[in-house]
Design a protein that fits this description.
Elements: E1 5-11, E2 14-23, E3 30-34, E4 37-43, H1 48-57, H2 59-74, E5 86-89, E6 92-101, E7 107-110, E8 114-120, H3 125-159, E9 166-169, E10 176-178, E11 184-187, H4 195-208, H5 216-225, H6 229-239
Parallel strand pairs: 2-4, 6-8, 9-11
Antiparallel strand pairs: 1-2, 3-4, 5-6, 7-8, 10-11
Length: 245
């Protein structure tokens, strides 16, 4: 696979950046778009003129989703919580499906490709929005606690450090924290970011168990267990505001 190239496609008055990757395995031109931006994967046999035609054919889809992610980053995106909307989980987008049933309970399941939410058929629109968002948040918090605790155990094992208590919280400006007593707090919204970004935050807080500061020794330890930490910091700086429901 050849190195990625940074390019732009003009859709209306908007210049949208995209990353172009050539792949021996690709049989057709593929598009993905998320908080990292637009990515185009092309077979080696495809020409740039083929890419241009494919981009033009997908221009409406590209523009819609690109602007949606830009709004999400700016905190302006408003959801209706209807089937087809997408949410982030471990750095990838997944659709939600809303299904009506007779039961008064609201339930949720994730099958690896879609979130399925069942809600009472008589619920009004405003209450539906509240219930859907609330059950998704509860699901994220539950999964975040399990996943982060497991990864935390792994990094404590390889560093030889121990913590006191781990808590999952909802914080506006912090992804994690470590107290003098060795208590670790993590923001549940981290579960929306890629796994390597989550690992960075965990490593960051684990290193605070030894260095409760941001000294050179601290950052050297972070780099030892997470060599790509700077990339993770940049990812959070750019995409952190979009990690929300």
């Amino acid at each position: 696979m050849k190195a990625d190239k940074k390019l732009f496609v003009n859709i209306g008055n908007t210049a949208i950046p995209y990353t172009l990757t050539e792949s021996k395995q690709a049989r057709r031109i593929r598009f993905t778009i998320d908080l990292n931006g637009l990515r185009v994967v092309k077979p080696y046999s495809a020409r740039m003129s083929d890419i241009a035609r494919a981009l033009e054919a997908k221009s409406s889809w590209i523009y819609k989703h690109y602007m949606e992610f830009q709004s999400r980053k700016a905190g302006e995106y408003k959801r209706e919580w209807e089937s087809g909307e997408k949410v982030l989980y471990k750095g990838k987008e997944y659709e939600i499906g809303i299904f009506k049933h007779e039961d008064k309970r609201t339930t949720i399941s994730f099958n690896g490709t879609r979130f399925e939410i069942f809600i009472n058929k008589d619920i009004e629109a405003d209450e539906r929005k509240f219930l859907v968002e609330n059950i998704l948040k509860l699901w994220y918090k539950k999964v975040a606690k399990i996943y982060l605790k497991d990864r935390l155990g792994y990094f404590c094992k390889i560093t030889g450090l121990t913590y006191n208590i781990m808590r999952i919280k909802e914080q506006k400006t912090r992804w994690g924290s470590c107290s003098k007593k060795g208590n670790l707090n993590f923001n549940w919204k981290l579960i929306m970011s890629p796994e390597w970004v989550i690992d960075y935050i965990i490593v960051h807080e684990v290193c605070h168990l030894r260095y409760l500061n941001h000294s050179k020794d601290f950052w050297n330890m972070v780099a030892l267990y997470m060599p790509g930490y700077k990339k993770a910091r940049e990812w959070l700086k750019e995409n952190g505001p979009g990690l929300k429901l």
